[in-house]
Amino acid sequence: MDKLIIKGGSPLKGEIEISGAKNAALPVIAASLLTSGECIINRVPDLRDIKTMGRLLKNMGAEFHYESNKAIVRTDRIKNLEAPYDLVKEMRASVLVLGPMVARFGRARVSLPGGCAIGARPINLHLMGLEKMGAKIELEAGYVIATAKRLKGSTIYFDISTVTGTENIMMAATLAKGVTVIENAAREPEVVDLANALISIGAKIKGAGGSVIEIEGVDELKPIRHTVIPDRIETGTFMTMAGITGGDIIIKGCMLEHLHAFMTKIEEAGTKIEEADSGVRITGPARPNAVDIETAPYPGFPTDMQAQFMALMTIAQGTSIITETIFENRFMHVAELIRMGADISFKGSTAAVKGIKQLKGANVMATDLRASASLIVAALRAEGMTTIHRLYHLDRGYEKIEEKLNRLGVFVKREKR
Ligand code: EPU
């Protein structure tokens, strides 16, 4: 398994460009199952998760080509309506093919994703939604089998706001008979991006971005032509990296309107964010202020930025209280940050991070995607070298990370195994 060696201590300087959002690209690629004809999706980041989605579609009989951030998908020869265990266990977002498959082909057999490093993450709400739309749901040998002649519109209330659940039901509803209303829908920008992609191919969707989404089913959709939104989590991660090193960087191609809650907190911590001619300029303080955060569904503070923000708080002046409300086990990075000298204690879903003056480089282990990013954030400020092991998590979600860090003046080296 690859590892990453980072030399800490120098402020980030320079310019980088933000990539397309992984969590927006994945559902739009899955949506190509709703239509025959050639779908062209632009600004798709070059990531392991995208390749996994490509393998999943090919395994079903689709054509999938990926080059220079463009994905070209054809789903007119689908013969195998299945998402097998091997691919779902690699990437939970594989479950995004469930809604489109039942809607267009009347059947789907999808391996149930098990728990993962950040929590149990069930898909009961996805299944409840499809059942309410008339699908028959059966569980067999770890697989969920959903069948329906044609899905019917229904009112679906999610008692927990679920991002991929909302996306799955929204996609399924585009080809259902009648009107579907999703109540307590997820409001994340990635849901809105998917809705925009679907609307542009003929879907009738109102209200995406709010908590009630109404979808009127149509008989057919046209092939997709879509450009994915920039990655707000990658943007926030680089802002945090500039913040922790007292850096001065320009971030190009990002959408600040997707980062409001996060920006409020990082600004409170002392990082300046200004619009500049060539992009957004981020300047970090000598040492951040301690700020409390609590994760929440969008537009709240994103759980996908919690680990990185915690890394920033390890060297803050004062104590920061960090509360994770979305996933029950998303503090796996704490033990690794402690290996670098951080003073963190936690009970249940709340952590107290007492800022120290200086982190020290160490051997650390990445446990999930955003935990890996938090270890890079910490490594950039640590004295000496940090070696991050189990790098494959990072490659699931950060495009050209070494190249971008190099451009910002960081000494970073990947050792392949
Ligand atoms: N939940 C249920 N039942 C369900 C669905 C969700 O109980 O049927 C619970 C989950 O266990 C969790 C909460 O609802 O406690 C919210 O989970 P959600 O369904 O919103 O998460 P997700 O759709 O599986 C997406 C992102 C995650 C991100 C979360 C929260 C994609 C592909 N993944 O996951 O991204 O953390 O929303 O914003 O969009 C990442 O990129 O590192 C990542 C984990």
Bound molecules: uridine-diphosphate-2(N-acetylglucosaminyl) butyric acid
* Integer-rounded radius of gyration: 21 Å
User: How many strand units?
Assistant: 24
Separation, N- and C-terminal Cα atoms:
5 Å
Task: Give a verbal description of the structure.
Helix content is 32%, strand content 25%. It is of the alpha/beta class and 417 residues long. It has two domains: 3-19 and 230-415, Alpha-beta prism (UDP-n-acetylglucosamine1-carboxyvinyl-transferase, Chain), CATH 3.65.10; 22-227, Enolpyruvate transferase domain (UDP-n-acetylglucosamine1-carboxyvinyl-transferase, Chain). α8 (232-245) runs parallel beside α12 (369-381). The radius of gyration is 21 Å and the shape is elongated. It starts with a strand and ends with a strand. The model has no long low-confidence stretch (mean pLDDT 96). It binds uridine-diphosphate-2(N-acetylglucosaminyl) butyric acid. Uridine-diphosphate-2(N-acetylglucosaminyl) butyric acid (EPU) binds at residues 23, 26, 93, 119-126, 160, 162-165, 186, 190, 303-304, 326-327, 369-370, 397.
Structure at a glance:
With 417 residues, this protein is of the alpha/beta class. The protein is built from 14 helices and 24 strands.
Q: Helix and strand layout, with pairings?
A:
Elements: E1 3-7, E2 13-17, H1 22-31, E3 38-42, H2 48-60, E4 63-67, E5 70-74, E6 82-83, H3 85-90, H4 98-105, E7 107-111, H5 124-132, E8 136-140, E9 143-147, E10 155-157, H6 163-174, E11 179-183, H7 189-200, E12 204-206, E13 212-216, E14 225-227, H8 232-245, E15 248-252, H9 260-268, E16 272-276, E17 279-283, E18 293-294, H10 306-313, E19 319-323, H11 333-339, E20 343-347, E21 350-354, E22 363-365, H12 369-381, E23 385-389, H13 392-395, H14 401-407, E24 412-415
Parallel strand pairs: 2-15, 3-14, 6-7, 10-11, 18-19, 22-23
Antiparallel strand pairs: 1-23, 1-24, 3-5, 4-5, 7-9, 8-9, 11-13, 12-13, 15-17, 16-17, 19-21, 20-21
Helix pairs in contact: 1-2, 1-7, 4-6, 5-6, 6-7, 8-10, 8-12, 10-12
Bound molecules: uridine-diphosphate-2(N-acetylglucosaminyl) butyric acid (EPU).
Residues 23, 26, 93, 119-126, 160, 162-165, 186, 190, 303-304, 326-327, 369-370, 397 line the site of uridine-diphosphate-2(N-acetylglucosaminyl) butyric acid.
